[in-house]
TrEMBL record:
Residues 430-497 form the Pyrimidine nucleoside phosphorylase C-terminal domain. It comes from Mesorhizobium album. It comes from the Bacteria. This is Putative thymidine phosphorylase. Its EC number is 2.4.2.4. PANTHER family: THYMIDINE PHOSPHORYLASE (PTHR10515:SF0). It is an enzyme of class 2 (transferase). Belongs to the thymidine/pyrimidine-nucleoside phosphorylase family. Type 2 subfamily. InterPro entries: Glycosyl_Trfase_fam3, Glycosyl_Trfase_fam3_N_dom, Glycosyl_Trfase_fam3_N_dom_sf, Nuc_phospho_transferase, PYNP-like_C_sf, PYNP_C, Pyrmidine_PPase_CS, Thym_Pase_Put. Pfam families: Glycos_trans_3N, Glycos_transf_3, PYNP_C. Keywords: Glycosyltransferase, Transferase.
Length: 503
């Protein structure tokens, strides 16, 4: 029996294409020629009992042998080939959801079946990044109505895993983002778990920000737990703070986020589907959504917040999820630190009830924890914040947080950065405005979140008076080069802090 003509030996390319499987072939290899493959062709690769649909990248020089196909890390992890394995390659069939995608691009409404087909094709990698981009673009702005938002949310939920916790309330919280340093989650989880309730929190790493909750938490304890390990932690301590990317509760959402962030746009419908699909998948029964509102936050006006809140509530009702929405001040950062270790330091400072702990972070965490405790069935309305206050002041929340850290793999004290430099005010006056986005950019240029200790420490707030030459904030960096890079940007953009006349 002759060998298939469309067969190539597999090697590992050693190239990270994030979640997009890619295969590399030489343009003159017999498979490319006989199958008519060209760059960006969608190909089906089969090796043993596994298969993957990948995007073809064509090699034009001698870096790849003619009888070899190289797999990106994403493709390699799907196929998991044995040493010296071979694979057969053929054209991938058009995705079943192609008609639905085309209909949405041309402005038509989609139903439950359409969205389910699209999400099934997305997680099976039958949609290319170009097709996913078309879908995200077609849904952006106001192009998803409430019924479509609900259908998309249910479809994203249907194609992922779902955790069941048995009877009783399961609490959760989420912030829609855009506010540097707003690291309330570890404090809230500690308070809620100390109160005897379950709060299995999955959190994200930073994509465009200086730190995600998972980045800050990882400074203090392991977060890359799988579902079984996550369940053990929650059963032992009542709560957890783990990286959502490892439990894969809403894999379709992860794929769409990968497309949305480089485009730098989404819609209320996509945001709601993203957040609530993950809450429902995590088994939550009662959740709170924090919407910071401010001129440089993600949600910039009261009208935008009201529209988002209405869509969140109607979608949550359709899922059977009890939802509380809080609108909070998004005009300036929360806490002192911006960056994983600096934010972790602030969290511990609040939990330890230190005199110098940031009051704004403490109060936000108490507000959120109190609202969640009020939402528990049978709770006496309006008593939650006092209960949260007591659990924090007594040290019960700190003890619970350290116990959660130990259950997740052990607690580590955050370490400071070796290189520091202050950025000084260029005039005397009163702080009237803070640009959250540019402040976050400075922290990223300093190395956050890749360097966990990097970021900025900012103690001034809107309304504070400063004198020329006084520090506005301090840059923390792992290397002198990163320190100078961030400092250069900060001095070139003094309008990060708008300083008016002295009051």
């Amino acid at each position: 029996m002759s060998e298939p003509h469309n067969r190539l030996r597999l090697v590992r390319a050693g190239i990270d294409t994030y979640q997009q499987p890619v295969v590399y072939m030489h343009r003159d290899c017999h498979v490319c020629r006989s199958e008519g493959f060209t760059a960006l062709t969608r190909v089906l690769a089969r090796s043993g009992d596994r298969e993957v649909i990948a995007t073809l990248n064509v090699v034009v020089d001698d870096h790849l042998a003619l009888n070899v196909a190289a797999l990106s890390e994403a493709a390699w992890q799907v196929l998991k080939p044995d040493p010296d394995a071979w694979a057969t390659f053929s054209h991938a069939e058009p995705p079943a959801s192609a008609a639905a995608l085309r209909a949405k691009v041309f402005g038509q409404r989609l139903d439950d079946t359409d969205f389910l087909a699209l999400m099934q094709d997305a997680v099976a990698n039958r949609l290319s990044d170009i097709e996913l981009t078309a879908f995200v673009t077609a849904c952006a702005g106001d192009r998803l109505d409430n019924d479509e938002t609900i259908a998309l949310t249910k479809a994203m939920l249907a194609v992922g895993e779902r955790i069941e916790w048995g009877g009783g309330p399961v609490l959760d919280k989420h912030c829609v983002g855009g506010l540097p340093g707003n690291r309330t989650t570890p404090i809230v989880v500690a308070i809620i778990a100390a109160a005897g309730h379950r709060i299995p929190k999955t959190s994200s790493r930073a994509i465009t920000s200086p730190a995600g909750t998972a980045d800050a938490m990882e400074v203090m304890a392991p977060v890359a737990l799988d579902i079984d390990a996550m369940r053990r932690v929650v059963e032992r301590e009542g709560g957890c703070i783990v990286w959502g990317g490892n439990v894969r509760l809403s894999p379709a959402d992860d794929l769409l986020i990968r497309i949305e962030h480089p485009l730098d746009f989404d819609s209320d419908g996509q945001l709601v589907a993203s957040v609530l699909s993950k809450k429902a998948a995590a088994g939550s029964t009662h959740a709170l959504i924090d919407i910071p509102v401010g001129p440089t936050a993600k949600v910039r006006s009261a009208a935008a917040a009201a529209s988002l809140e209405a869509r969140l509530l109607v979608t949550a009702q359709a899922l059977g999820l009890h939802l509380t929405v809080m609108r909070t001040d998004g005009a300036q950062p929360v806490g002192y630190g911006i960056g994983p270790a600096l934010e972790a330091r602030d969290v511990l400072s609040v939990l330890r009830n230190e005199a110098e702990a940031p009051r704004d972070l403490r109060n936000r965490a108490l507000d959120i924890a109190g609202a969640l405790l009020d939402a528990v069935p049978g709770a006496e309305p309006g008593k939650g914040r006092a209960q949260a206050h007591m659990l924090l002041d007594s040290g019960a929340a700190l003890a619970k947080f350290l116990a959660i850290c130990e259950a997740q793999g052990g607690f580590t004290e955050p370490k400071p950065a070796p290189h520091l430099r202050p950025v000084l005010a260029n005039r005397t006056g009163r702080i009237e405005r803070i640009d959250n986005r540019r402040l976050a950019r400075i922290a990223k240029l300093a190395g956050a979140p890749g360097s966990a200790a990097a970021g900025i420490d900012c103690r001034v707030r809107i309304g504070n008076s400063v004198r020329s030459g006084e520090p506005l904030f301090q840059i923390h960096a792992q290397t002198p080069g990163e320190l100078e890079y961030a400092f250069g940007y900060a001095t070139a953009h003094p309008d990060v802090f708008e300083i008016g006349a002295a009051g």
